[in-house]
Design a protein that fits this description.
Oligomer: single chain
Shape: globular
Radius of gyration: 13 Å
Structural class: alpha/beta
Strand content: 5-15%
Largest sheet: 4 strands, parallel
Helix content: 40-55%
Length: 132
């Protein structure tokens, strides 16, 4: 049995992009969903950090699992490496959706009480949302 809401981790090559997307998503949830940004390298450059992803996963897990949204392909590789190294990955899903729209959709679904599969699906389905 799980408790809490599904957490969300945003993995970006840019600390600013990850933080901005997390801030936007947090606004739509009213602060009810744990959203953790894992952006940039450990020394502040563009890139990704396995250490930041590992810490973000730990912080985001409130008992109902974590959905991870990466921005670009090599962020996916970083997340997969972390998941291979950490052992228990049953409570983590990597979503293949647009970074900003996916973050917002995932957050809304998590805030509404969606389970980990529903939250990941919402992030992925956001690619079909039209703006015009």
């Amino acid at each position: 049995m799980t408790s809490g809401t599904v957490g969300i981790v945003l993995v970006s090559h840019s600390a600013e992009l990850a933080a901005g997307a997390a801030h936007l998503a947090a606004q739509v949830s009213g602060g009810t969903v744990t959203i953790v940004a894992a952006g940039g390298t450990d020394d502040g450059d563009l890139g990704t950090s396995a250490a930041k992803v590992t810490e973000a996963l730990r912080r985001a897990n409130q008992g109902a699992g974590v959905v991870v949204l990466p921005d670009l392909g090599s962020a996916v590789l970083t997340v997969k490496t972390v998941l291979e190294d950490c052992g228990d990955v049953t409570a983590v899903l990597l979503a293949d959706g647009p970074f900003v729209e996916g973050a917002v959709a995932a957050t809304v679904t998590a805030a509404a009480g969606g389970d980990i599969k529903a939250v990941a699906a919402a992030a992925e389905e956001a690619r079909h949302a039209r703006k015009l």
